[in-house]
Design brief:
Cytochrome-c3 Hydrogenase, chain B; Beta Polymerase, domain 2; alpha+beta; 2 domains; single chain
Amino acid sequence: MTQTLAGIQLTAVDGAVPAWRAEVDAGTWRTACEAAHRAGGRLAALWASDERDRQKGFGVRALLVLYEGLVCLELPISAERPTYPDLSDLFACAGRMQRAAFDLMGVQAVAPDGRAPDARRWLRHAAWSAEEFPLRRDFAPGRAAPAGDDYSFVRVEGEGVHEIPVGPVHAGTIEPGHFRFSIVGEKVLRLEERLGYKHKGIEKRFESMTLEDGARLAGRVSGDSTVAFAWAYAMALESLCGTRPSGRALLLRALLLERERIVNHLGDLGYLGNDCSLAFGFAQFWRVKEDVLRANARLFGHRYLMDRIVPGGVDCDVDAAAANALNEEALRVKDELRTLRSIYYNHAGLQDRCVTTGRLLPETAARLGVVGLAARASGHAMDARVHPGFAPYERLQPKLVSHRNGDVAARIVVRFEEAFESLRLQRVILRSLADGALRVPLGPAREGAFGIGWVEGWRGEVLIALEAGADGRIRRCHPHDPSWQNWPALEHAVIGNIVPDFPLVNKSFNLSYSGADL
């Protein structure tokens, strides 16, 4: 990539993926984003920071994904008038990110006419007063004074239109989220989500931790993606420290990431069968999933592989006996998957429920900035693992799986094929392991150093943006789950379907509540 974007000089960010950064003003903020949009680029994340202790007011950052790599734009804004140009007209997924930035930091996106595009609170839920912003440096953690919470849902009016509120508390162990349906009969005219009920203050907690201790918290942002978040954090920290893990450690990270992908796809395929009244599918997939989880515990010390990836490398290894066990397991799981795939693809009742249900058209997915599995099932061939320069996948050459129909059936197909591909990659990784240190010491972290971690988790792209503070501590850490981009897609996919199909459509995306609530 040339060292400019729309005439803006870029500075390279040292790290495992090609990345650049630039400080811009309000005008070039828009100019650069418009240029990225025209070039087919995407918005990966948007977040704010408090720089008043440096006499710099506030800051807003936008991370763009271009073919050549990642570009982080940094916009300083004044403390007296903390506003910045809206990006939601270019990147639809920016809307909720900008609302969250206001709730947490008090910086407001404004459209060219001076108005806020959508000023409704996203994360507050009466948890703190209107004058308080939890990510500001002068905010004292603790129980804040509650404020009113009169959230204005968009109303659909007309003869025979009814509303059905679902949640935020649900009947099972599912995490809380509110879904407001506007319907005629059983047909869904509109769905509006309201999330933010899982707010735990994770981003604030990072600021009280050392750079190395932050790795454990990163792995707990979204528990079903612990490997992806732990790797992204380690990558960001290694980037700002100038540290390179060994080839063996990188391959072991990839092994853990593919096992996380397998486990989640197995569980979701079981749930999708259950939502179609195919209890046999649920029982069989969860039996296979449990076998893989027990193998994880036996071979790596944790069922869900938590804390196995650490800054500088990994905290586990594979010997010859473990490699043989993993290869034997892969053959068994592959045979089981083939049998279950044949049943799912030939079961008339399941196909009737899934084909054309919850369809997300390719053009809608592109407009919303959808990523990961959901994007690939809607005709968009994107996967951070195949991005140029991403080690060790550039050597492993994973096969990218996609589908064009964008319905529940397509998302099932992608899950099956990705599980098969992960089993193949696992065998390739085990054949490729060479000698090397499991963990190398980190280099010094200069105050103000900045690093980016970007990993393709099983849902999609997981991001960590990390800035070092004084004395080896974290100044700012922003974790980003792909669910930010994909939750709005669910609102579109369910339109025109019947209400009883919503659990099936929802599960076909299986998005994270916690990962999008920091």
